[in-house]
Amino acid sequence: MILEVDNIHTYYGESHALQGISLNLEEGETVCLLGRNGAGKSTTLRSIIGLSAPRRGRVTFKGRDITGQPAYRNARAGIGLVPEDRRIFPGLSVRENLEIAEYSRPGVTRQWTIERIFDEYPMLGELAGQDGSTLSGGQQQMLAVARSLMSEPLLLLLDEPNEGLAPVIVKQIGALIDQLSRTTTILFTDQSVHFALKHAQRAYILEKGMIVHEASSQALINDIETQHRYLSVA
Ligand code: ATP
């Protein structure tokens, strides 16, 4: 098991956002966290990487208890987060946005270099000198994912990678997830079941800070009742 989340409770002030979330990922899996607005998807990712420390419960990454460990240390240990708002650094070029994120874990051979990123995603290469904040939403999402690769993540957390993107771009993000899932463990969030079904093997559904359902993507696609009860169905 690369990630085990055991009964975590996370608060914003007095607001009890996560009320006992448990989930786990085997190495190599791609799993989706589903749920409507405010269900707790982002908070779950933030709790795993250490941006919102759980008050109770435990997060274990590669067999080590990392609960409450600061995000920068978790990033160095191999957890990458692409936040919902992408956080492209304005005033830095596409290349600089990538350079600033470069980190080599001791003893790990680099898989992702800027050259490889420009090779695999030529669109980013063409935009290398452009200020990252002037990119379109889809281009920024590609850059945000590429930037996370610069620290060689073993576990990639993607928070609503499709939010606000046109259907044609959503397809590209899906292809990117499919490609990365061959070598990386991925946990991503989404609001509707369709994208999850195409790109994840399993899904957890959250509501009001709790996991209310867990199923293989295949089982979920046939479970219209669960979809209607807990998800935004297009
Ligand atoms: P969305 O799709 O809207 O991001 P989500 O499923 O990711 O939804 P979270 O953002 O994790 O949900 O929010 C879970 C709960 O925590 C919600 O009730 C939300 O209002 C609350 N919350 C989130 N961020 C904060 C914050 N910074 N301060 C206070 N409450 C917050």
From TrEMBL:
Gene Ontology biological-process annotations: L-amino acid transport
Keyword GTP-binding (UniProt): no
Domain ABC transporter: 3-233
MF (Gene Ontology): ATP binding; ATP hydrolysis activity; branched-chain amino acid transmembrane transporter activity
UniProt keyword annotations, A-Z: Amino-acid transport, ATP-binding, Cell membrane, Membrane, Nucleotide-binding, Transport
Domain of life: Bacteria
Family: Belongs to the ABC transporter superfamily.
Protein name as annotated: ABC transporter ATP-binding protein
Organism of derivation: Pollutimonas nitritireducens
